[in-house]
Please model this.
Amino acid sequence: MSYHKLLFSEMKLRTLGRTGWISRLCDGVSRRGKVCFSSCSPKVCVVGSGPAGFYTAQHLIKARKDVEVDIYEQLPVPFGLVRFGVAPDHPEVKNVINTFTQTARHSRCSFYGNVNVGKDVSVEELQQAYHAVVLCFSKFFLYMCVCVCVYVIRGMGVPGEDLAGVYSAKDFVGWYNGLPSCQELSPDLSCETAVILGQGNVALDVARVLLSPIDILKKTDITHPALEALAESQVRRVLIVGRRGPMQVACTIKELREMVNLPDTRPEMVVADFQGVIDALKDLPRPRKRLTQLLLKTALEIPGEMEQERRNKASRTWGFRFFRSPVKVLADPDHNRTAGIRLAVNRLEGSGEGACAMLTEEVEDVSCGLVISSIGYRSVPIDPSIPFDSHKAIVPNTMGRVQQAAGLYCSGWLKTGPTGVIATTMNNSFDTARSLMEDMDSGVLHISSAKPGSQTIRALLEKRGVKPVTFSNWEKIDSVEVKRGEATGKPREKLLTVEEMLQVART
Ligand code: FAD
Ligand code: NAP
Model:
């Protein structure tokens, strides 16, 4: 093709690309029966199939009629933390899966599960095959540390954290939610008291799962091994420990209310922790004020007759412990197992959200056989070629454009850090999709030259012996899980190993 013809077709692509006209011209039908677009469509690759991946794909597909999006996911199953993070007793939150499924079934979207980007295929290879790559993966590790100040982490790790009976919330949640890599955890729940470090929503999820009556849990999609272990659990008391005070808890009111109303439990708070809180109420912003009011009510108010009766009958207790930082996990006399935790007593410097916890000389030992650290997630990089800010644990970006990496974008927790609910992730993913489309429109992103997209990547994967799982393969897994669940009155019984998932996917 002559230069002028090329230029002309490029101009046509630019002007008509969003009308659907071009895509109709380019349409064909693939082996899988999906509409297959020709080499002239802009090809975007999304890494990770959690909310960020799906919302980015959804926005791109809706806003431009020519874009093709391929989603690569390391596991054979999609949906990220919606499947492996969201608590089993929160089924309504998982309804977003219906929207994600619509996106995945769209003729211009393909899902490739069982592809570990960074190992099976590099980000650089993806960049060569696609016009743009959007990083939406999150690979996490949880850390435990003594933190003196909110802004300065002094010292990482606490002695004794490798004792039996100490777990990260990431692993504990992964265990009860069926994350294959966490199935070996089999936590020992034979103790009476559990201590959870951190007071965010994940901490409350874990506390609720530990204390929920088994009749509630058995109607959820919690895994069978977790259900069995929880049915036998001896845990009767859960303490949720925070380094700061009642006005700095990180959980939200809905989750706190669920704890307050949890059947067969009663709250156990330390009244002295609430000193001065009533006076400070009037100056708090509204959501924080309502949350603090509920905390105050739970801790200080003398309950009515019915509530008192309910509390008297309860066989399990839960409570917040404030102004405490872990300094050491204490071992039993044989030095094998956790027997307790030493907590430093803190004082607060400053006030409000930014108040800083400072260690005092004082410590307190709490007997417990289970310690679960739930002090936030941290992303880790999957590929050395990706710029990564290890201090903030994010990919450095401007509105989702990865800094100093043309054609590379990011969404979700990798973009913002590990905070925010699914709705927040949706908004930040839509923002990234908008940035990407702006770059297509302005010419910053070159979409005029054809890119092979999944064609090349599938060939590469085949050569490397990696067999991707398609979305219709996932739907087979889904239907097996749902069928297995029906037998026991659960929404699904999850498959727990990658091997079993692959076996079902390929039947
Ligand atoms: P993720 O959901 O983690 O998705 C990332 C995806 O990337 C995963 O599928 C992962 O397997 C994949 N991936 C990782 N590495 C690779 C790789 N190398 N190659 C390919 N793919 C890869 N929000 C709510 O609104 N309600 C709730 O009830 C709620 N509960 C939560 C419970 C827990 C325990 C946690 C941790 C979070 C919860 N959230 C909840 C927050 C919500 O889950 C997040 O906002 C959201 O999942 C972030 O989306 P994401 O796509 O950035 O990350
Ligand atoms: P989070 O909300 O950030 O809470 C982390 C907790 O750990 C805070 O109490 C924090 O205290 C504490 N912490 C952090 N570093 C610490 C340290 N070094 N030493 C001692 N304590 C420390 O994190 P998360 O609970 O993991 O939740 C992650 C995100 O997912 C949140 O946005 C959450 O809302 C969301 N989520 C939502 C739901 C839901 O909607 N139901 C459920 C689960 C998760 P400081 O405040 O002092 O830092």
In short: Residues 1-37, 141-156 have pLDDT under 50 and may be disordered.
